[in-house]
Amino acid sequence: MPHPDRIDTLIVGAGQAGLATSYWLTQYGYPHLVLEQAAIPGHVWRDDRWDSFTLNTPNWMTRLPGAPYHGDAPDAYLPRDEIVALFADYAARFHLPIHFGARGLAVEPAGDGARFRVQTETAQYEADNVVVASGLYQRPRVPDYHASLPAAITQLTTSTYRHPESLPPGAVLVVGSARSGCQIAEELYQSGRQVYLCVSRAGRLPRRYRGLDSLAWRYLIGGFDRLVSQLKDPAERFAANPHISGRDGGHTINLHRFARAGVTLLGRLRGANDGRLALAPDLRENLVAADNLDARFRENIDRFVEQAGIDVPQEDLPSLTDGFAQMERTELDLAAADIRTVIWAIGYTYDFSLIKFPVFDATGYPVQLAGITHCPGLYFVGLPWLRTHGSGLLYGVGDDAAWIATDISRRSRQRTPSAPSVATI
After folding, report:
1. Would you state the CATH architecture of domain 5-138+350-414?
2. pLDDT, tens digit, for every residue of 80-98?
3. pTM
């Protein structure tokens, strides 16, 4: 094998986290290289999102380092293709050193034990530092019992669904009612499809309340700056995102409206056998959970407005109950319901198997403090709740990237000065 190229820092992944980290290292003047398996930066926004996908965060929250939003629609929401263009423009504007088509296979100890060896499909590198910026959502979650569904059923995930016209005729079952599941279900029923939706305990936020976007209120009360150490339970890092949508100018998603529009709401899916689905009888309590989150959010905003003396009008949002009128089912026959497509929208699993260092807990999640592991020079960035609530968002990833770049700078100063060599692509 050829002698490995040597570089100070390698960044694995050219999504928002990798680009933000590259930006800061570029500003600091530290030699580094970004390895990206696809042909464009931020490819998951193009390849793993449906056609009508729109950011749920308003444009003013789109603030990669060095490139805050300066457009004329701060309260609008970027559609998928504009997000992809944003990343491409960012990488080009700041001349970020990205090697495209470089899929990482392994990050392991180098021969001297003090450096990292990074294997790709076509090259080998050695680095003093490795920043893993591949994100948390590598693989859509699909239950084992999906194999029990009839072969004639088309099965998709939120990463492989594109638009209603791409589906075979017939009704559609969407399993999961967090943000993506609800948005896809809404698009399907608005296109004229009969939709069945398995409802989880994911909550709901109003898109706007008392004159402001709900995320603007969350910003004002400091919600995005809430520290991971303030979580009551570490499992909250993986909680489902509440229903909300940025499509068509942004609007509230309410399961009771779904019921009013003819969507059949179901409890959680427990299993499948011979074309029949087993359902939990928890539809009502899941609807209550969604309603309660909305109510608690508005109560918190009302309290904040009063305490801060903010002059905004009162607002009473309509109280809907249509979902409670639906029948609680414990079984569903796919053929009888004419369901020919199932879309799995039950979240993602993470996969950091390319990292050959003991820096993971029993579930395979990185053990780190603000992205810094106990293995000197090995970092993670772009994970939800890495440091704060905003860590996994375009809003907050730049701050985490700056933190990691600063630690890389510290490590560099502590090492014996030497002339760095930059890998040639």
Report:
1. 3-Layer(bba) Sandwich (3.50)
2. 999 999 999 999 999 999 9
3. 0.93
